[in-house]
Amino acid sequence: MLDWLRRPAAALPQVTVGKLVLPVVIKRMERSRRLSMRLAPDGSEVRITMPRWTRTADALAFVQERTDWLELQLAKLPAPVEIADGATIHYCGAPLELRHSEGTSRRVRIEDGILALGGPATSLGPRLRRWLESEARTLMAQDLAFFCTRAQQAEPRLMLSSAQRRWGSCAHGGTIRINWRLVMAPDFVRRSVVAHEVTHLVHFDHSPRFHALLAEIYDGDMAAANRWLGREGRSLYQPFG
Fold first, then answer.
1. Which of 27, 70, 153, 220 has the highest CB neighbour count under 10 A?
2. What confidence tens digit (pLDDT) does each residue in 90-104 have?
3. Exposure string for 192-226, b = 16+ CB within 10 A, e = fewer
4. Residues forming a β-bridge with 151
5. Overall pTM surpassing 0.90 (yes/no)
6. Is 87:101 a contact under the CB 8 Å cutoff?
7. What are the E-state strand segments in the chain?
8. On the CB side of 226, how many CA atoms lie within 13 Å of its CA?
């Protein structure tokens, strides 16, 4: 999984895709053997990984030759959802109808498929995001404790991530970061990412020993969780302001 090193937006090369002009972020990788291209989950940029010896001009030509593919990927992105009364918000995989009334309590309440809260409409998106992040921290802390017990590891520091490329990461120092947006995914998907990163506390690679331990501690269907992320992951990048 990659950390994308960015220059100021104005300094980035760009590509025109349909009516959009997207920045192109280039990452040179020591172990890379070929050019590869991805679209950011929210469609905000094109990402290229390539060997260190590859010229930037070659990378940009590679992108230009594949604008049709980029258009197809952009078309697959979920339509933006306005965070307002009647919108659908997902929580632990369940769709909830947002009910907003300015004169009622700001506290979030969930009942019978309804997510209700009050307060000013102008701050609705940011307040919902803060609530989701708080729920994510609580749930992921529980997941972390569960899988660390199974892996016989001390609980490391847990941090929430808002990365656009990674669902989770485990640093050499032991800190585990999990993307807060996974609180919107089904429980078994969120838990699969936490289990994956806990396994890295023991095996900092993807060796057969890593996969054997992951299969031992994770109590769900890892293949199904990976398929869900591959199919639905982009839907979690709903803007909240």
1. 70
2. 999 999 999 999 999
3. bbbbbbbbbbeeeeeeeebeebbeebbeeeeeebe
4. none
5. no
6. no
7. 14-17, 20-29, 36-39, 46-51, 88-91, 94-100, 109-111, 114-117, 158-161, 168-170, 176-179
8. 6
